[in-house]
Amino acid sequence: MSTNTVTSSDIILTGDRTTGPLHLGHFVGSLRNRVMLQDVCKQYLLLADTQALTDNMGNYTKVSDNVLQVALDYLAVGIDPAKSTIFIQSLVPELPELFSYYLNLVTVSRLERNPTIKDEIKLRGFERDIPAGFMTYPVAQAADISAFKATVVPVGADQIPMIEQTNEVVRKFNASVNQEILVECRALVPENGARLPGIDGKAKMSKSLGNSLTLGASSDDITKAVKMMYTDPNHLRVADPGQVEGNVVFTYLDVFDTDIEKVAELKAHYQRGGLGDSVIKRYLEEKLQALLAPIRARREELAAHPDQVMAILKAGTEKAREQTAKTLDEVKRAMGIVYF
């Protein structure tokens, strides 16, 4: 689905877990779209520190410290607080209250069938030792989305089951009160599928897997990451024909190089032999250095004034609460539990 389908009447809700600075995968999958979307709709950006705690209890500073880090990334790539509302999830008490009501609309078996949850449980090796907060986070996400009456939620293709479950909660609640109080939403999936493989080529880019490249990466970090990138293990000599499918360097070039003809030429040369991995890696590095240098500079400038960044978050959180308080009041009145 293209961002062109979003109109000025749409309300966008999206966010990121505050477990570390954002990386290139986020930039490709969502951040670029968010910068564009803020000019055509009403956008809320959630710093999901509460959600991050679902599998980081006991590691609190990792979560709280990264609220500022993620905010810096947002601002550095071009998110404008005058156009987008950036807020901190844990400072909006209406969200957990809605969550507590919605839990009664979802069964444990339904949560266990959620494909996204199943994949995340496997990835983290929880097996049956699953934190209840983690198992129920699709319901918490439903509260986040519906509290703002969001009509569109930008997500990766792997998150579509979460949107489906949100809409199930919305429908069940509306049916339970026989009123149309909450609003269903639709997923906005980037054309590239919102996925970028890690530099090791084995999985999507992820901080927890140690295969990511952050938006604030130094010039040396970028050089080191590109040198480590997975290519074709059978391309042992420059003269050997190489494979471009599954080759992380070419995957990144497809995403970050706007010169499509140049990339096609490099692919053809690599496939017939005579083009070394070091050459294509140097070419990719030039592209990444040019992309990240201005983001890094802006981020460093903002990081020098953390109080100003936190002031932006405070103002955004206050604005977010205005909307969530209104929705919560409507929900409670529909349920008949407003007593005074």
From TrEMBL:
Record-listed E.C. numbers: 6.1.1.2
Keywords: Aminoacyl-tRNA synthetase, ATP-binding, Ligase, Nucleotide-binding, Protein biosynthesis
First-tier enzyme category under EC: ligase
Gene3D superfamilies: HUPs, Tyrosyl-Transfer RNA Synthetase
One family name in Pfam for this protein: tRNA-synt_1b
Domain of life: Bacteria
One Gene Ontology molecular-function label: ligase activity
Family designation: Belongs to the class-I aminoacyl-tRNA synthetase family.
This protein's name: Tryptophan--tRNA ligase
Naturally occurring in which organism (per UniProt): Silvimonas iriomotensis
